[in-house]
Design brief:
This protein is mainly β and 144 residues long. The protein has a single domain, classed as Deoxyuridine 5'-Triphosphate Nucleotidohydrolase, Chain A, CATH 2.70.40.10. It has one helix and eleven strands; from the N terminus they run ββββββαβββββ. It has one helix spanning 64-70; strands at residues 4-7, 24-27, 34-36, 41-45, 48-51, 56-61, 72-74, 79-81, 90-95, 101-103, 108-116. It has a four-stranded antiparallel β-sheet, with no helix packed on it. Strands 4-9-7 form a three-stranded antiparallel β-sheet. Strands 1-5 form a two-stranded antiparallel ribbon.
């Protein structure tokens, strides 16, 4: 599938690093570095603009290395880019560590996953079918 993209950054287009990769790295497109203090958040621009086909979304997800090593994650994970959005892709990063973290131009800050999705039509009813789980949630199916 081809997706139209405008690249206003100074970096190469996102690409799949291996044949089995689900996501492509997004890089920060910054004129100046950005320092996130502990618990601080910022929208980091990528310089990328895309045109997705209807029926697809782009999911912005954290990079596991940044999260594990530095406590940096995507705040609204996964962030959704809808097919009708034409603005610049921005990544909402948050620093969950106790140390300042500086983001430099070109740094890999998130992953982008392209996913097909369905649209649902609601069928309003008075009751739902019964299951063994019922209304149990939030860990109710695990072994105690």
């Amino acid at each position: 599938m081809n997706i139209k993209i405008i690249n206003k950054s100074s970096h190469a287009l996102p690409n799949y690093e291996t044949i089995a990769s689900a996501g492509m790295d997004l890089r920060a497109s910054l004129s100046d570095s950005v320092t996130l203090k502990p618990l601080e958040r910022a929208i980091v621009k990528t310089g990328l603009f895309i045109e997705l086909p209807i029926g697809f979304e782009a999911q912005v997800r954290p990079r596991s290395g940044l999260a594990a090593k530095n406590g940096i994650t995507v705040l609204n994970s996964p962030g959704t880019i809808d097919a009708d959005y034409r603005g610049e892709i921005g990544v909402i990063l948050v620093n969950l560590s106790n140390e300042n973290f500086t983001i430099e131009n070109g740094e890999r800050v998130a992953q982008l996953v392209i996913a097909k999705h369905e649209r649902a039509d609601w069928l309003e009813v008075k009751e739902l079918s019964e299951t063994s789980r019922g209304a149990g949630g939030f860990g109710s199916t695990g072994v105690k």
